[in-house]
Amino acid sequence: MSTAHERIAVLGAGTMGTGIAALAVGHGVSVTLVEPDTRQRERALERVRTHLRFAQLSGRIPGDETAPVQVTADLQEAVGCSAVVEAVTEDAGLKARVWKQVSGIVAPGTLLVSNTSAVPIDEQAASVERSEDMVGIHFMNPPYMITTTEVVRGPRTSETALVAARELLSVLDRTAIVVGDAPGFVINRILQWMINEAARITEEGIATPENVDALFQGCLGHTTGPLATADLIGLDNVVDSLRVLRERIGDERYEPCAALLAKVEAGHLGRKTGRGFFEYGGKP
Ligand SMILES: NC(=O)c1ccc[n+]([C@@H]2O[C@H](COP(=O)([O-])OP(=O)(O)OC[C@H]3O[C@@H](n4cnc5c(N)ncnc54)[C@H](O)[C@@H]3O)[C@@H](O)[C@H]2O)c1
What we know:
Layout: E1 7-11, H1 15-26, E2 30-34, H2 38-57, E3 69-72, E4 83-86, H3 92-105, E5 111-114, H4 121-125, E6 134-138, E7 148-152, H5 159-171, E8 175-179, H6 187-203, H7 209-220, H8 226-233, H9 235-249, H10 258-265
Parallel strand pairs: 1-2, 1-4, 2-3, 4-5, 5-6, 7-8
Antiparallel strand pairs: 6-7
The chain binds nicotinamide-adenine-dinucleotide.
C-alpha cells in the first residue's frame, strides 16, 4: 500500500467533499473530485476555492500555494490515486454500491476511506474486494478548521491501511484518534442523540433554540450549541445519520423527532440553505 499521498480521489462534492478537497489541495495533495450531480459539479470548484480562501485567511491552511483539483463525473478518474475518500450522502445502500464500483477499478493496496457519520466500517467493507484496505476517517465539519479526526479501525482493517491513513492525516496536518467500529463510532453515537433531544426540547416548548444553545455554551463551555452544530452539519444529514443509528442500535431515542423532520420537509436544512434552527445571512 502506498503511503506517499500525491493525489487522492474524493467522492461527493457536497459539504464534506468540497471541504476535504480544500484541506488536501491546501496541503499540496492533488484531488480528483467525483460527483454525479451536474449542479453540484458546477458549484464544486467555487466551493473549494471559497473554503480555501477562508482557511488561508484565518491561517488554518499554510501559504497560498495549492495543488490542483479536478472535478469529474467519471469514477474511472479515481484510478491511480493513493487513496479514495468517500463523502457521499449518508445512505448505507448508496455507499455499498459506490464501494463495489470503486473496488472493481482501483489497484490493490489503494487506501479506501469512508467519511461516514454512522455506517459501521465493517458493514461497508463487506462491499469491497479487499476489506483490509478500508478504514474510517471521520473528518469533522469544516475539515480545514477542525484538526482532530476520529479514525475508525474496523475488525478487518489491516495494520498497513492504518499506517497509510495515519500518513495521509500527517500530510494533511490532522491528529488521529483511533477508535473501534460501531454505529456512529464515538462522536455521532453521542452527538446525534444529543441533537435529537435538543430539537425535541424545542418541539415540546421547554426552551427556544437560542436558549438551548446558550446553555451549552455558557454552562458547559461548548463553542457551539447542539442546534447550531446541527445547522452546520445539515439537517438532512442529521436525519439520515439518526436513521442509520436507529436501524443499527435499535434505541428509539435515535428516531428523528418531528421538529427535525418538519425542517427537512420544508427544505430548511441549516447553513447550506440559509435557514435551519437559526437564520443565516449571505451566501449559504
Ligand atoms: N455534514 C457534516 O457535518 C458531516 C461531517 C462528517 C461526516 N459527514 C458524512 O460525510 C458524508 C457526506 O456528507 P455531506 O454533508 O457532505 O452531504 P452532502 O449532501 O452535502 O453531499 C453529498 C454529495 O454526495 C453526492 N453523491 C451522491 N451519490 C454519489 C456517488 N455515487 N458518487 C459520488 N458522489 C455522490 C451528492 O450528489 C452530494 O453532492 C456523509 O456520509 C455524512 O454523514 C458529514
